[in-house]
Specification:
- The strands form three sheets. A six-stranded antiparallel β-sheet has the order 2-1-4-5-6-7, with helices on one face. Strands 8-12-13-3-14-15 form a six-stranded mixed β-sheet, with helices on both faces.
- The relative contact order is 0.17.
- It has a domain of 173 residues: P-loop containing nucleotide triphosphate hydrolases (Rossmann fold, 3-Layer(aba) Sandwich), CATH 3.40.50.300.
- It is built from ten helices and 15 strands.
- The chain starts with a strand and ends with a strand.
- The protein is globular, with a radius of gyration of 22 Å.
Length: 374
């Protein structure tokens, strides 16, 4: 799978961009602040309808305009498809495939699959549990696109349930809790399915993460080359892995914490409170890993994601956003060796010298609000 074209209209800093693309390595070279990341962010957005930089769509639309359009041309074998998404903050976004409107925008997810590694990925190791949850959720959605709907339904349930809990806070026996029982059922149903896929995805990802970290951190001592990812749920799952069993475990956890939830006015049980613990050797990576180890682990997680998606079918498109400048020479060379044979790689860098010579390929210069072939 690879892109043959990218067109932007009022996306981020670009009034208009129209690029022809080719398989292999493509680098976007330009000083900081010129819009390199905007280009690869647009590609990644078409794949998963999420930005790796912001949680809302408003910043994606060029200041002073009302909507942005991103269009990509994708080739898989002998087949081609034109994917287009119209981003309209405050209104429903729209998506098209080969000019035909999709009934739901999220049906676009998974047609193009990307894996992006960026400086923000250090949060996968050093950041809050929400960063690791989001990483896993984006990955499982790319593997099983229908789960975008499950995630959206779960988020809606949590918002509604939290509103009800806040309204009941401190009111004790004067509150009719029958409505809360209904939201408990919905939370457990959607949450059970989401956790089941998280557990399965993490189990499938772990072997790839172990191998990727061993390759990236080859100079580390043997005991510091072992990484593990463990799912830490907000309630006792009692070994359950199937959605129905997890639903029952969540309902039991909710019942046990109901008084605490009513006292605090917030949902305390569910996948929105879970953690994915990452360990290097015998110690948690968060708080114990060095800066170099943290970068290596973040990179290993992205490479593991790439390998897992590749097992499902074609090579995903790999995006390396301003990462070579953050790596020492040894890690830079290891990364170049690992990605050299990927069908399509996009790289952004401030200077051409940051890109290893082994990854020379097609190059664009990004400057003055424009993009030109070098």
């Amino acid at each position: 799978m690879h892109l043959t074209g990218l067109a932007l209209h009022d996306f981020r800093s670009y009034p208009e961009v129209d690029l022809e693309l080719e398989p292999g390595v493509t680098s976007f070279i330009g000083a900081n602040g010129q819009g390199k990341t905007n280009l690869v962010e647009a590609i990644d957005y078409v794949a998963g309808l999420e930005s790796h930089r912001v949680s809302a769509d408003t910043p994606l639309v060029r200041a002073g305009t009302e909507l942005a359009v991103v269009r990509t041309d994708v080739r898989r074998g002998d087949r081609t498809a034109r994917l287009e998404v119209e981003i309209s903050p405050g209104r429903a976004n729209r998506a098209r495939v080969n000019g035909s409107n999709l009934p739901r925008t999220r049906e676009l997810i998974g047609i193009l699959r990307t894996v992006m590694f960026s400086p923000e990925d250090l949060a996968l190791v050093k950041g809050d549990p929400s960063d690791r949850r989001r990483f896993l959720d984006v990955l499982l959605t790319l593997r099983t696109p229908r789960l975008a709907g499950v995630r959206a339904d779960y988020d809606r349930v949590i918002r509604q349930r939290n509103t009800l809990l806040k309204s009941a806070r401190g009111r004790g026996d004067r509150v009719d809790l029958s409505t809360l029982d209904i939201w408990d059922e919905k939370l457990a149903a959607f949450g059970g399915e989401l956790v089941a896929h998280r557990l399965a995805t993490l189990a499938a990802l772990n072997p790839h993460a172990v191998e990727s970290y061993r390759q990236v951190a080859a100079a580390a001592s043997p005991e510091r080359q072992v990484v593990t990812g463990t799912y830490r749920a907000s309630t006792d799952l009692d070994g359950a892995t199937e959605a129905a069993e997890l639903r029952d475990a969540l309902l039991a956890g909710i019942a046990a914490r109901r008084k605490d939830e009513l006292d605090r006015g917030v949902s305390l049980v569910g996948p929105h409170r879970d953690e994915i613990q990452l360990d290097i050797g015998d110690l948690p990576a968060r708080g114990y890993a060095s800066h170099g180890e943290s970068w290596s682990l973040a990179l290993a997680l992205r490479l593991a994601s790439f390998r897992l998606l590749k097992e499902d079918g074609d090579d995903p498109v790999l995006i390396l956003d301003d990462v070579f400048a953050e790596l020492d020479g040894q890690r830079r060379d290891h990364l170049a060796d690992l990605v050299r044979d990927v069908e399509q790689v996009f790289i952004t860098a401030a200077v051409a010298e940051d890109v290893p010579a082994s990854l020379s390929g097609h190059r664009f210069t990004v400057a003055g609000g424009g993009v030109s072939r070098a």
